[in-house]
Structures are given as C-alpha cells and as structure tokens.
Specification:
heterodimer; A: Urease, subunit C, domain 1; TIM Barrel; 2 domains; 13 helices; 23% strand; globular; B: alpha/beta; Rossmann fold; disordered C terminus
Chain lengths: 430, 323
C-alpha cells in the first residue's frame, strides 16, 4: 500500500444505506474525500483495505443535538474533545447548541465559533444560533445575518420561548429566512424547581417533580403556532407519551413537524434515579416505563424521526453534589449508537435500515445537509460497526472531557471499529 | 437478628426484622434514662458529630443526649446551607470530619438524599436526622415505639397521618415503618399536599378527616409550615384548622382511646387544639422522651456493627485489649 494512496476499500461489510435501499453485503470504495463506488466485489489497486466481514458499514451518524460548551465552558467540553468523542461514537456531523457563554446569538459570536471549529474540530460541526438574544426570551436575533454566517437552525435550547407572541414572530422570521426552528419544549411555570419526573419516584425520594404537562403543553403550543405560519418546526428531546400523541396527530394533519428523542428516553426510566444518582438527573427527566414504551413505539411508527444524543457534559464538581444542586444532563456522543443497538435492534423494534434512518439519514434531511448516505459522489463519512461486541460503560473510558453518562455501569452492545470522515480514517478502535 | 448496616438512611431500606431489632433495643435503653446516673459505657471512646444544615433544637438535643448517655463524645456543627454552593461542599465537610477520626455523623440537611450521598463517600457511619422531604427515620422509630408502648402492638393498627404529606419526611418514614410492621396507614390532607402516586406505597388516602378518623387507633398530626414558598397553593390557616385541625369535637366521634401524636414543634390552634395537645389522648411528651431511647438504639447498633466488622479485619485491636 502506497502512503500516497488516497483510496480506501471497505471489503465484505454489510452495507446499510436506506437512502439507496441497500441492506446487503457490498464493498465500498472511497477515493479522496468522496465515495467512489458501492458494489459487490470491488477490486482496486493502491488502496488501503479495511476488512469488514461481520461488520455493519453505514453512513456516519448525524447528531442534531450536541452541547460542545465552547466558547465559555471549556472545563466541561471543547470543540476538540467533543468532536474527538464524536469520532469514537461514530458521529461525523453534529449540530452544536448555542447555549454557550456567550450565547451564539449574533454574527460576531458565530464567527468566533466558526474560527474555533475551523482550527480544532475533527468532524463536521454545524451551528445552531439562538432564537432570542442571550436566550432570554425577550428580543429576537437577526436571523438574516445569522443565516448569512452559515447557521443552519435556531433554538434557545435549555429554555423555551415563553412569550407565545414572540415565538410566533420567530416562526415567521425563520420561514422568511428558510431556517429550521428547533423547540425545547418546557413551560417553566409548570416545571420550576423540579429535578425528577413527577410521579411515584419523586414522591418516594422527596424531590420536586417535573410534570409531563410542562413538556407536552408547550409541544402543543409550538406545533399549533408553526401550523399557523406553515413553516417547519422540530421538537427536541421528546420524552413523554402525550408529546408523542400530539406530534402524531399534527403529522396526520400535514403540519411540517419533525421530532427527535435521545437514547436515554428509550433506554432508562425514572427508577434509575433511586439512590440519588445525579448522572440520571436530566432535563427533560427520565420518565415512567409507560413513557419509555411510548417513545420506543413512536420510533418504530415513524412519529419520532430522529435519534440525537443531547450530549450535555458537566464537570464532576457540578454533578457529584446534592441531587437538587447538581446540573441537568448526560453525555451521549460515545454511547448513542450502542444504546440504540442494544435497545432498538436487539429487541427488533427497528431493523438496521430503520436505525440508520433515525440516526443518520433523517437528521441530515431535517437539517438540509447532503449527508447520511453512501451514494457514489457524496462525502465519504462512513462508519464500520461491530454490532455484536458487548462492553461495560465506565467513567474511565470517555474521550469527552466529562464523564457524566447515564449509561455508566450499563452493558451495551455494539462498538465503532472505524470512523471515516471526509475520506480519512479519523478513528480506529484500539 | 444482628444489625450489620453501616448507616441509617431511612426506614425504606430496612427489613421488618431490622426495625423490630431497633425497637426492642430502644425499649431496653429506656431504663438508662431513669437511673440516678443516666449513663452506660457502650460508646465510650467513640465520637459522634451532629452536622446540622437546618436549624433544629429538639432533634439535635435528643441525639446529643442519646450519645452522651451512651458515653460517646459529641461535637455539634451548625453549618450554613447558604454556603453550600460557594463554600465547602458537603462531601468535603464529611471527609474532613472523617479525617478527625470520628465514628458517626448525624446529619440534618435541607436536600433530599444528602445523607445517602454522604454515606456513599464516607467510611464512617451516617445517621440521617432528616433529609429534605425524604426521610426522618429516628422520628418514625420514636413514633412507632410510643405507639407500641401505648397500644401493645403495631400489626393491625389503623394509623392516620394528617397534614402536609407532600413535604414531610416524617410522613414518609412513618409510612415505611408502619406498613412494614403491618399497620394500615391512612393519609388525610388537602389534595395539593398529597404527593402523586402515594398509594403505591401501600397506604390509603381519604380527604375527609371525619371519615379517616372513624376507625383510627392513632393519629399522627404533622406540623403545618405555612411559610413554604408555594404559599398560594396552601389553604389559609383558618380553613386548614376548620377542615383538618385535630380538636376535641373531631375526636368526640373517634375511638375513645385514640392516640394523638405530633412530631413537634406544635402550632397550637393550627393543626391541633391546645386541649387535645395537652389532654389524655396525647402522647406528645412521651414521644420526646422515647426519642432518646430510639436514638440510643440507632447509635448503639451502628457502633456495634462497626466494631464487629473492624474486629474481623483488625487483630491487633484484640491484642491491645489483652495488654
């Protein structure tokens, strides 16, 4: 093999590419940064050979909900560490959330973040900007200018825009500027002070609960406003049954609504919080078993379109304290694929093409980027996955700067063997 | 039955047998407080630290007396909750107390789960003296001890708990303890003070006090804290007293010998009228007295378990005793 070779041939892998209806043994040839061919028995000279028999070959994950924390909270995560974690988890494109310090709410801050990304990112990092200045819910950001800087979506993630009139105007502006609005659905008047799902667990533990109403009433409001404006809306981190029902109904009526959930909402229930485990303190909270089932069914039924990690790194000092004082959130970049395989493929809730749709193809479509596919001529963002290997999630093995994973101590199945980003082997499992 | 637990965090974690062991141990310690010299040497050379993040007189004093009657050395630390976020963390405070070669921390904290968190991080023992809305196990033990003394049994009793169940660690610990020992527990409160899905803990909820009291053997009256932040959700004092106050008139329709308990401090005329608080059905001061024996039992069994587990691995201690 020549060192100058820019060709990679992935041999004998099981290619899962729903965009081309492929779910079969194929070889994949990569040349320079692009896919040069997908066929049976490709032979090529001067190329690096990756033997992939028994492995799944799929488009890299497109994770549309990631908190990289930079700028401002580099003690939790940076673009460098976050995108290295992404590579390990098989994520080749991600949408960075704007709740940084400062918030990504103006062209200057977008440029600041773009510079950091250009210098330090290992994967394709897309930028979401805030809907309102400083994410305070008072004054809308300049969406035209933000779009011109390359922002692909808008969200005040971490908060909802409480003022319905302002949110309606945001939808109108987003439509005019052809930007996607992503809604963090939470009515803080109903959830304030809550730290865990409202129900038997909050009762037994003596903790203030977060009701499901605080989520789904805002889902209903935001969808009805988007319907009025006739513009797309994306619902972030859906966690409860009623939200699913509202989204299902809206989809039937032709509203342009898409939705994501995170692996912890279909893998872990509120009972995980017993013992006051702060890594299980997440917003929205881990819900009841019934909600967990509803989320799982919604994935199978196509009501929930995408799986995204809501990767939310926090330092040990912010997590290893009294439950009420601990920060909300779990990391997810390095566990989302394995959690999805363990909970959805193993149980036959989704087949492989179904999972690749949820985790790669659909999020790419929602964001309007040309990813999530293994088509000749497209960017070579491909992962090779060992779907069988079982592993124990442990605090010591994270690439992310933070280790606050709700999956620590759990056994998961499936690991990324190779992550190929822009035609280069960017990660190889040790 | 041998006590083996390092900590006492709540009655939820205990078996029926463990609760019974605590009660019989407490019964045997009652006599100590009637002696002329109110002291036994059981915890001589042991150091007990009362770490209180919330103002509390009765629980702290009760623990202090209990430890002293067992001959332990007692240190009281009043910590400020406001400094929790900016100042030293609870875990750091705990590890420092441990580094002072102490044996048992008795902790009172405004956050649910604080005692559990401390116990996870420390090798020395942790006794929960009340954590947020979660549990107050020694209060429930002394309540149950008092009830058992008065009525001779717990199994089959109908016990009504009246008041702010949602925010009450006393209620939660009583629910666990009483149901494990076979009592039927009924909760009675305005609906906004009943937490969701509480029936799953094996209790009944009856919103009418008269109905709830009809066949009650005992009523445990919780302190109403009208100063809580969600003021708007609370009924007015007058309204509360009218519907849920324990009065002579109310009790005239209940069993004649119904036992009336209250964890204190009393809000006279709010949740209980003075004639009842001071009357023949009330065991409120017996509860206070029994608090000492209940806490002595907890400290004693935990210290004993520590010695047994240390003895297994520490032979030179035996040697030392022989010399």
């Amino acid at each position: 093999m020549s060192l100058k070779s820019r060709k990679i041939l992935i041999k004998n892998g099981h290619v899962v590419d729903p965009s081309n209806n492929i779910n079969d043994l194929r070889d994949v040839l990569i040349e320079n940064s692009r896919i040069a061919g997908v066929a049976k028995n490709i032979s090529a000279d001067n190329c690096q050979l990756l033997e992939a028999s028994g492995k799944i070959v799929m488009p890299g994950i497109v994770d549309m909900h990631v908190h990289l924390r930079e700028p401002g909270r580099e003690d939790k995560e940076t673009v460098t560490t976050g995108t290295q974690a992404a590579l390990k988890g098989g994520v080749t494109s991600l949408l960075a959330m704007p709740n940084t310090q400062p918030a990504i709410d103006c062209p200057e801050n977008v440029r600041l973040l773009k510079d950091i990304i250009r210098q330090t990112a290992s994967v394709n990092v897309l930028i979401a900007a805030a809907i309102t200045k400083e994410r305070l819910g008072r004054e809308l950001t300049d969406m035209l200018k933000l779009r011109k800087e390359g922002v692909v979506a808008l969200t005040d993630d971490g908060s909802s825009v409480d003022n319905a009139g302002l949110f309606l105007q945001a939808l109108k502006n987003a439509k005019k500027n052809r930007l996607l609005l992503i809604s963090h659905c939470e009515d803080k008047a109903l959830s304030a002070g809550g730290v865990v799902n409202l129900g038997v667990v909050s009762t037994v533990m003596g903790l203030k609960g977060i009701s499901r109403e605080s989520e789904y009433k805002r889902v209903a409001r935001d969808i009805s406003l988007a319907r009025k404006v006739n513009t797309p809306i994306h619902i972030a981190h859906v966690s409860c049954r009623e939200s699913v029902e509202i989204i299902a109904k809206a989809k039937k009526q032709g509203v342009k609504v898409t939705a994501e959930t995170a692996p912890h909402y279909f893998s872990l229930s509120e009972e995980e919080v017993y013992g006051y485990h702060t890594d299980m303190k997440i917003n929205p909270p881990l819900r009841s078993q019934e909600d967990l089932e509803a989320i799982t069914e919604a994935l199978a039924a196509g009501i929930i379109d995408a799986i995204a990690s809501d990767h939310a790194p926090h330092t040990e000092n912010e997590k290893d304290i009294e439950f009420e004082y601990a920060e909300f959130g779990t990391t997810g970049l390095e566990t989302e694929l394995a959690a999805s395989i363990s909970r959805l493929i193993q149980t036959e809730i989704l087949d492989w093409p179904g999972l690749v749709r949820k985790i790669s193809l659909n999020p790419a479509k929602i964001l309007g980027i040309d990813k999530g596919t293994i088509s000749t001529g497209k960017d070579a963002d491909i992962i090779v996955v060992d779907p069988e290997v079982e592993w124990l999630v442990s605090k010591e093995n994270f690439v992310s700067r933070s280790a606050n994973s709700a999956f620590v101590g759990k056994k998961l199945r499936g690991l990324v063997e190779y992550t190929i980003f822009a035609g280069q082997i960017a990660y190889k499992r040790q | 039955m041998v006590w083996t637990k390092k900590d006492l965090l709540g009655l939820e974690d205990l078996s029926k047998e463990e609760i019974e062991l605590l009660l019989t141990t407490a019964e045997s310690f009652k006599e100590v407080s009637t002696r002329e010299i109110k002291k036994v040497p059981a915890l001589r050379g042991k150091t007990v630290v009362n770490l209180f993040y919330e103002p509390s007189t009765r629980t702290r004093v009760s623990f202090e007396i209990a430890a002293k009657r067992l001959s332990a050395d007692v240190i009281n630390i009043m910590a400020e909750t406001s400094s929790v976020k900016k100042g030293e963390t609870l875990i750091d405070t705990g590890t420092n107390i441990q580094a002072l070669k102490t044996d048992i921390i008795v902790v009172r904290h405004n956050c649910s789960g604080a005692a559990a968190m401390l116990a996870r991080h420390l090798d020395i023992s942790v006794v929960n003296a009340g954590d947020g809305w979660h549990e107050h196990p020694t209060q429930a033990l002394l309540d149950i001890l008092t009830l058992k003394e008065r009525l001779g049994r717990i199994k089959g009793l109908n016990v009504v708990i009246v008041g702010d169940i949602a925010h009450s660690r006393v209620a939660r610990s009583n629910i666990w303890g009483l149901t494990k020992l076979g009592a039927q527990v009924t909760l009675c409160a305005p609906s906004m003070l009943i937490p969701p899905a509480i029936e799953k803990l094996g209790v009944r909820v009856i919103d009418d006090l008269g109905t709830a009291l009809k066949c009650a053997d005992a009523v445990n009256v919780l302190r109403m804290q009208f100063e809580r932040d969600e003021k708007s959700a609370f009924p007015s004092r007058m309204e509360y007293f009218r519907n849920f106050g324990i009065t002579k008139e109310r009790l005239s329709k209940a069993k004649k010998d119904i036992v009336v308990m209250h964890p204190g401090p009393l809000n006279r005329g709010v949740e209980i009228s003075s004639d009842i608080a001071d009357g023949g059905n009330s065991v409120i001061l017996e509860q206070v007295t029994n608090g000492i024996a209940a806490r002595m039992a907890v400290l004693f069994l935990i210290a004993q378990a520590r010695d047994i587990s240390a003895g297994k691995t520490n032979e030179f201690k035996e040697q030392e005793n022989i010399n």
